[in-house]
Amino acid sequence: MKAVRILERVLTALPMSILMLLLVFAFVRLLPGDPVDIMMGQAGNVSQAEIDALRRELHLDRPLAEQLSIFVRGLLRGDLGYSFREQRPVAAIIGEAFPATVELALAGLLFALLVGLPIGVLSRR
User: Fold this and answer.
1) Measured between alpha carbons, how far is residue 65 from residues 29, 59, 81 in Å?
2) SS3 at position 13
């Protein structure tokens, strides 16, 4: 019976995960401005050949369905992609923020234990 419940949850989570993946992909593509123009705008005077090369490198010259396929395959390999704004790998950006995130989560947990637990015990009386 427990295995059936776990299977139900997995089968429910799978479509939701796919939907979230599609939404993230769509929202990134719907952001205003062309990523290549944004990246090259910081470089100054750039030739059309350089713009086209970057567009090919980022797979932005391909149809959306193929871009989605490349995005999903990258995620399955653990490649979170490249930040257009920061111009570096997303994994590196997340890695830099991870220690602060863990610190905040542990501080919140400690606060919940030190404040919430006594309040819960007192309210039970």
Assistant:
1) 12, 11, 17
2) helix
| Amino acid type, 96 | E
pLDDT tens by residue, the chain, 125 residues: 789 999 999 899 999 999 999 999 999 888 888 888 877 776 678 888 888 898 898 888 999 999 999 999 999 999 988 887 788 999 999 999 999 999 999 999 999 999 998 999 999 87
Please tell me the pTM assigned to this model: 0.66
Distance CA 70, CA 57 (A): 12
Q: What six digits make up the tokens of 17? A: 């995960």
Please check whether residue 65 is in contact with residue 108, taking contact to mean a CB–CB distance below 8 angstroms: no
Tell me which H or E stretch contains 82.
strand 82-83
